[in-house]
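Ticket #4471: structure export looks truncated?
Reporter: QA, pipeline team
Priority: medium

Steps to reproduce: submit the single chain below to the structure queue and open the exported record.
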Amino acid sequence: MDIVCLDLEGVLVPEIWIAFSKESGIPDLKRTTRDEPDYDKLMRWRLGILKEHGLGLKEIQDTIAKIDPLPGAKEFLDKLRARTQVLILSDTFTQFASPLMKKLGWPTIFCNTLEVAESGEITGFKMRIENSKLTTVKALQSIGYETIAAGDSYNDLAMIQAGKAGFLFRSTEKIKADYPELPAFEEYDELYKAIEQSLEG
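Actual output as written to the record:
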């Protein structure tokens, strides 16, 4: 039994925080898990910037409403889901993910939750579990699944390395150079073929 685990942002949809950085005119918010391996540190830093500028959940959700999946992402996902089980593992939040899941045809996603005050201020965040991507992959393996994973950022590396096959997709030159043993792809067709070969292998 195989299951494919995919990252969300950068793989199927544009990076939410980069889109919000452009929309809000705050360049500092462009920083993502491609730049900062420590997610907890990154999120606390982001929340500090939001507080400083008086921005809350509504402003980010307004930006997300305008985001569409990357070109070809839904077709790739539909084709893959017709072939095998697919699970999206993301460090994003339920309050961000829902409109994007609708545009992707409601795939299953495991992600985290924001803590939001009545005023709409994002006061904190609750991670589903520590090292959520790797922990989830190991849990799937413990119930009889072999995992195949793809992602683009530092926080995807553990789940990519832990399975029977793993791939970088549209990653940074630095990550590709630091992990030359991981096959890296830029196009959905290439990634689909690599996953298909792993499923048959």
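Status: closed, not a bug. The export was complete when the record was re-opened. Leaving a note from the reviewer for reference: DSSP finds nine helices and seven strands in the chain.
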